[in-house]
Write the C-alpha cells for this entry.
Amino acid sequence: MDSTRPTEATAADLDAFAGLDLLPDPTLVIDQDLCVVAANQACERLIRADVAEWIGRVPLELVHPDDLPIVLSSFTTISEKDYGTPIEVRIKDGDGTWRLMELVGATHPRGDGHIVVISMRDLTQRRQWELAAGSPELFRTVVEHATVLLALIDADGRIDSASGTWNRQLGHDLSYIVGSNIVDWVADGGRHVFAVDLAGAVAQPHTSVFEAALVHTDGRVIPYQFSVANLLDDPVVQGLIVSASDISARRALEVRLTHMATTDALTGLANRSALVDALVRRLGVPTALPESLVVYFVDLDRFKPVNDLHGHDTGDVVLSVLADRLRFVARDHDVIARLGGDQFVLVCDEVPNPAAAARVASRIESAIAEPIVVGTSTVQVFASVGYADGTAATSAEGLLAEADAAMYRVKQRRRGREMPTTLRVAQRRDLADDLARAVETDPAAAGLRMYYQPVVGLPDGQVVGAEALVRWQHRDLGLLGPHDFLAIAEDAGLDLALGRWILRTAIAEASTWAARLEIAVNLSAAQLADGSIVDMVFDALDREGLTPDRLCVEVTETTMLEGAGRGSLLPAVATLERFKAAGVRAAIDDFGTGYSSLVHVRELPADVLKIDRSFVSGMHTDAIDHGIVAAVVALAHAAGMTVVAEGVETDAQHDALAALGADLAQGYRYGRPIPASEFRRLWGGVPLRAAG
C-alpha cells in the first residue's frame, strides 16, 4: 500500500465533506486503505497542520506505538458494521504531547469500496478531573491492602503517591514516603545500581524488572523485586507505576539450596563441587609461584572395620571428629572438602617450599592417627596423604588426579609394593603419546569407540534418546573409560581434536537409527570457547542428514564455572545461543555439583537440566536429597526446562522421580552404555520400552 498516493474526492464527497467543519470534535475521513480523504478544522487545530498536507497519507504516525494494534484491529472489523465500537487511544497533538482520545468510526459505501468517518473526542481533561477527585472506594481499598509495595513516581524518581504497604512492610510513615525520592529508601551500596535501573525504565516504554534492597525502620535490609511500568506518555498518569515484591523467602531458599548443594551434610565441610570451584578460582589467578599452591589428598586406612565392627553411626561420629581435626590443621583461608566415603582434600596456598608442604602432610597424618573415643569404645584410623603442587596440572580435575595418584603411591609403599614416583607420570606421558597418535591418524583403528546409554521418558520408560560416551580399547591397558584419559587429553591439548571426532562420530551413527531418537553429546570448556565448533556441527548435521532437533549438546555445570573462572563464560554462552537458534537443544549436565548453581543456571541458554546422580541415589531414603530434587524439578519447570535424572538404578528411584514430575531419566535401571551396533540393534529401530 502506497501511504502517500493521491486520493480523489467526488463532487458528492466534497458536498458531504463540507459539513465536517460544523462538527466540534476533530473528524477524519479515511478510505479502505487507511489514507486520509478529508478532515475538518477541529482536526487541523488538534494537529496544528494544514489537513491538505495529509490528504492521501496514512495518519498512523499520530497514534502512540503501543496503541496501534487496537486501532488496526478496530479498522479491520468496522466495515462489517455501520458504527464501530469506541476505543481509547493516545494521539499526538501539534505540540508533540500525547492526548487521550476516544475514537468512533462510521462506515459509508463509496463506489466499489467504502470510507470511514472517524470522530475523536478528547478525554484527557476529564480523566485528569476524575483522578483529582480521588479513586473509587473499592479501588482504593484494593490498593491499600495489596501485598506488594505500590507507588506512582515521576521520571526523576519522586514519589507522588504510595500504598499503605510501605508502612506495613517497612514501618515508614507515608507522610515521609510521599514527596521523597524512591532511591532514598534503597539500602546503602545499592543506590547507584538502582538509579541506573530506574533510568533504564524511564528510557524504554515497556515494563522493566530489577531487584534492590530496601531499608526497614528497624535497620533490616529486605530484598525486593521491582516491576516498573512506564506510563510517562499516558496523558492521565504521566508517571511510572512501581510495584515491589518482598523476595526474602526466595533468597533464603536459594541460599539454603546452594548451601546443601555445596556442603557435605555429615561434616559441614565443602563437597566436591565447592572444592572444584575453589581450585578453579585459585588456578585462575596468575601467580609467580604456582608451586606454592598445594593440594593434599587424604584417604583413610582401616576405616571400613570401624563401620563393620561398631556400626555406621559410630563411623559417622569418627568422620565428624576427623573433619574437626583437619580444620585444626588448616589455616582460615585454606579449603577442606570431603569427597564422600573416607576421602578428604585440603587445599593450601602460599606454601613456601617443598619442605613445608611435606610438614603439612605429616601433621595431617599425625592428627588423624590420634585415638577417638566414641561412647565406651576407642577407635583408631590412619591416613595415606599424597599431595601435588600447582605445577602438576592446568585444571582442577587434573590437579586432583595428580594428588590422588600421589596418595595411591603412598598407600602402595605402605603395603610393601614400592612404586617409583615417576611411574605414574611416565604412564600418563605414554598414554598422552598414544592418544595423540590415535586422534591424529585413525581414531577408530586405534581403539576409540562410541558407546550409548539410553535416555527414557517418565513414567512409561520408553526410550527417547541416548547419551554418547567415549571409550578407548587400549592395546595394553584394555578398555578405558573417559575418566582414564579425558583429563590427559586436556592436559596434552588434544581435547579439541578428540571432541570433534566424538561429535562427528555420534552424529553419523545417530543418523543410521531408524527411530527419531535424540543424541546427546558432551562438550568441554575448550569446545565451548572454540568459535568454529558450531559451524563444524552444522556441517556434520547437513552431511549426515540429521535434523538439528535430534542433537542435544551437554555442558557440565563445573565446565561452565571453570570457563567463567578463566574469563570464557561469555563465549560459551554465545556458543550455546547459536546452537539454540539453529534448533539444537542445550543441557546443563551434573546439575547441583557447581557452586551457586541456582544463580548460574538462570543465566544460561539451556533447555534441559540434568540432576546429578549424587542427589538421585539417596532421594527415596534421604529427606534432604528428596527435597533438593523436588525443588530443582519445580524450578526447572518454572523456567520452561526439561528435567533429566541421572544415575537411576532402582525401581524406588524411578517411582520417586516420576511422582515428582521429572521428565526423563537414564541409568543402569534402563540400560548400561553399550557399543553403537548393539544400541542400534536394541533401540535404533522402532522405539521400544526400556527393560525393567
Q: What stands out?
A: Confidence is low (pLDDT under 50) at residues 1-7, 416-424, 562-568, 686-692. The chain is about 40% helix and 25% strand. The radius of gyration is 35 Å.
